[in-house]
UniProtKB/TrEMBL annotation:
<dbReference type="Pfam" id="PF04023">
    <property type="entry name" value="FeoA"/>
</dbReference>
<dbReference type="InterPro" id="IPR038157">
    <property type="entry name" value="FeoA_core_dom"/>
</dbReference>
<protein>
    <submittedName>
        <fullName>Ferrous iron transport protein A</fullName>
    </submittedName>
</protein>
<dbReference type="InterPro" id="IPR007167">
    <property type="entry name" value="Fe-transptr_FeoA-like"/>
</dbReference>
<feature type="domain" description="Ferrous iron transporter FeoA-like">
    <location>
        <begin position="5"/>
        <end position="81"/>
    </location>
</feature>
<dbReference type="InterPro" id="IPR008988">
    <property type="entry name" value="Transcriptional_repressor_C"/>
</dbReference>
<keyword id="KW-0408">Iron</keyword>
<dbReference type="GO" id="GO:0046914">
    <property type="term" value="F:transition metal ion binding"/>
</dbReference>
Amino acid sequence: MTAPLNLETLPRHQAATVDSIEWTRLAVPEARRLRELGFDAGVAIEVLHRARFGGGPIACRIGRMTVALRRAVAGAVRVSVDPLPAE
């Protein structure tokens, strides 16, 4: 895996794995929601869509769910890009 980056800057349709979540950057309800949705280290994640204008939400696939996250929340999720499969 490569160096961690955050979910907010992850390119669309790039497979990644959650490395860590900066829980202290999140309000209690936001942190609770992420935990309830299964966000944790080791979980596979992919950015599907971004709002056209910079401040909108980011749609992500985590497992079989599609979840919309505010950009501030996505910025607290650290991910590593999964390597390309060997041919």
